[in-house]
């Protein structure tokens, strides 16, 4: 936005603060798409405990000697993969035909206040099809930040995630079952969908959003054209997560694909 490209209100604020380097108002490019549609995956950590579970905490500074040697000798053992030991998905179907993707992962250790040797972490994400987006704005020091409504501005997203968690709680083995049970520690196992929804939409160490998969605030065909060139400019390109639409949990592959294609356009423009 300090380039003179963005929505008129923000550009006016920057101009009045002397932040546009004497750029003439007539040279501004008023584009309300700059900063709009900001997306990140909401996530919720659920701590699960069982006396029959032994957690494993990764320590790259001081790993278990035998596990360190396994990796060094044969590239095997726990340090040859990420700590997420299981991944699973579900899709929520809506009456309007839209679909929301939901994902769960199991981490081999507990988190924050729940880190004893019998605790693991269930991490629930909203992935594809979510409707909640926010915007990039500037704070009082003109530093970019997200608006507060990035997560759960559309209540359907919270309802889908809460229903998914409720379904998982219903499927957890009980204490009397074979292999002992798994007990949620930071959300009551008998919590209603409404109570779970209230929990996941309230910011805490365990809920709302902490994955930093930011994307989509300078999207193709609105902020940049199909070749990643900024609309209204001849030689300014944006090639990062902001140009891609919301993807799934981790936008890394989508960003890499967009960057590779954009680099072809940029090289082609310079060699023409």
UniProtKB/TrEMBL annotation:
Domain of life the protein comes from: Eukaryota
PANTHER family: DEHYDROGENASE, PUTATIVE-RELATED (PTHR47190), GLUCOSE-METHANOL-CHOLINE OXIDOREDUCTASE N-TERMINAL DOMAIN-CONTAINING PROTEIN (PTHR47190:SF1)
Name under which the protein is recorded: Glucose-methanol-choline oxidoreductase C-terminal domain-containing protein
InterPro entries in the record: FAD/NAD-bd_sf, GMC_Oxidoreductase_CD, GMC_OxRtase_C
GO molecular function, one term: oxidoreductase activity, acting on CH-OH group of donors
All residue ranges annotated as the Glucose-methanol-choline oxidoreductase C-terminal domain in the record: 132-259
